[in-house]
Amino acid sequence: MKTTFPFLALLLAAPAAMAQSGLPAAPAKSASDTYFGVKVEDPYRNLENLQDSAVASWMKAQSEYARRTLNAIPGRQQLLDQMVAMDQRKAARVTDIRVTDNGRYFYFKSRPQDQQPKLYCRDGYQGQEVLLFDPESYEKGKVFNINGFSPSDDGSKVSFGLSEKGAELGRTLIMEVKTKKLYPEQLQLNRGSGQWLPDNQSLTYTPYNNGDLKDMAARQKTQCVLHRVGTPQSQDKPIFSTQLYPKLDIKPSDYPYAGIDRDAKLAYGFLYSVDRYLKAYYAPAAALAKPNVPWQPLFRPADEATNFVTDEQYIYFVTSKNTPRQKIMRMPAAKPNVAAAEVLVPEAADEAILDEQLKTTKDGLYFVRSRNGVEAKLYFVPKGSKTVQELKLPQSAGRLELAGKNLQSPELWVTMGGWTADRKRYRYDVASRRFVPEALSSEAQYPEFTDLVVEEIMVPSHDGVQVPLSIIYKKGLKRDGAAPTLMVGYGAYSMSMEPTFMPPFLLWAQQGGILAVPHVRGGGELGEAWHKAGQKTTKPNTWKDLIASAEYLTKNNYTAPGKIAINGGSAGGILIGRAMTERPDLFAAAIPEVGCLNAVRMENSPNGPVNTPEFGTMAKEDEAKALLEMDAYHHLKPGTQYPATLVTAGFNDPRVIAWQPAKFAARLQASQVGGKPVLFFTDYEAGHGMGDSRLKQFESIADLMSFGLWQTGSPGFQPTATAVK
Fold first, then answer.
1. CB atoms within 10 A of CB 27
2. pLDDT of 357
């Protein structure tokens, strides 16, 4: 029996031939596909060829028009100036701190005059700071960014990735820290810094097969290789791949990585995709250097393990199997066996374990739980005990980040912050149970945000499920439905929208608007069950949660339908694209940034196959139906008044290929009636947002905020009739 989809009629709808004010219509060459008996028309399939001259000309014209239009919005430049001025208050911003065995600190630091973070080190917290590498002065005439670094355990060397124009893929450089001398070899076709081995002389990494980010073969059947410092890349030896170990369950789209745990004395082989559930093997550490490593299964996806740490005796892992909000289990490192593991930290009734915040020190195990994704707490299990202790924090925290040194040290650093509270870094003294401030970033004051109010509420969704909603606004706000509202969401990969202090976005609330963050299903705010409830066949809950949150805000007079702008990026493009196509009447503006908007064709892009665990595959009927349902491009209907829309793409984007936003923008422009603008801007000097200069980041935020304020009717953001010609 053939399956019929209720939305078949709109999938088959042909685009109108109308062009947006003065702009040429996109070149259209239709194609069709049949998925399990259902024929689906794709009117802009030709836009997938980004090298086609007609496609390139159309995208350029669209970008130039969008740029002129955005630049003409009154108030945009003032917003940008405010962002830059606030940023200059902080003399130094330090992130990604790593501390090696010898107490050497490595970190990124940026000052107001820096467009890219630079790599620094210092010996000890009080040590003299040393600039190791400045990407802005590396090669004259080129714009580089460091896309990750990794110091060796002894702090003698540091490796770091270098890439251009947001492409992420680039090369890995290795430096001797004492002399700041770069080793002669550069590891090409790598993304990031690699993984150091305990000998401090070698590292592992997984290069792409070629440097063409648009080539499907570039990241299929990749191999993890071993590099010895001081030798040419041509001598690197493959150590973990499907070619070497065909009997292991390694898919062509899996990224294989291997390394050594010096404490548990085990070698690990990991197979990464977007699947949260670990797929890993282990062997004796010494075996990694041998021709035939006797790999044994450590974690299978069926175990639902999402992260693990070790000490000399145990492997501690977080699992969601039969446990919606996760629990922590442990098993002997000498004989790993998930089936025989014991529960160390049971599931909590109203808090979810944040699996990425899991650290072991000489004193025990630290972990973080969060309530509704917005209230974080720190817990500790002393070594040799099963007693879980809550540690009293020096301040309330919306989010917590943990960092340690090694298993021979008691040191733990905790960074905490919230929606309206800047990040603060503390060292936890286990003996006195005190948190000692150890800031590396400069302090800054933001008096304009002192009167902001944060509400954390629960909102009933379409099916009665309660969804967390964070609402930020200025004290004294009138509940008369007049406030322009910016809703920002994501809802994928179990990633939580944790409270984060972002002054540029707070400017929306500071000038009388409402900033709202719906913690929609697909994220991890309420545990792994929350993630599963917005994945593949349950994905509609993601955008229906946002719609329900918007309806709550209107029914309770926070705002009104003509006053709401919605924004999300990357996988959040599904959220924004489907919310605006399902309820075009509810939103004044929609701003999907580098968004997944043509999910049906995702597998036909280089980064698509690795994403099938999260979104599904067109090879399975139920998942194909789910992908069609979450595909905003195929839900556009001719003759519909959609919200004003700003669609963005990065031409060098390795994650969401630029033709996805392009196809959506083209079909939306052809479908739109009523005169609301549809702008499509492609940044030819950027990728997915990683590696953007500081000014480019501010410009992107100024674009989305000024566009949203324009379309929600805010005075001071209304261009004249001739300003955008």
1. 15
2. 96
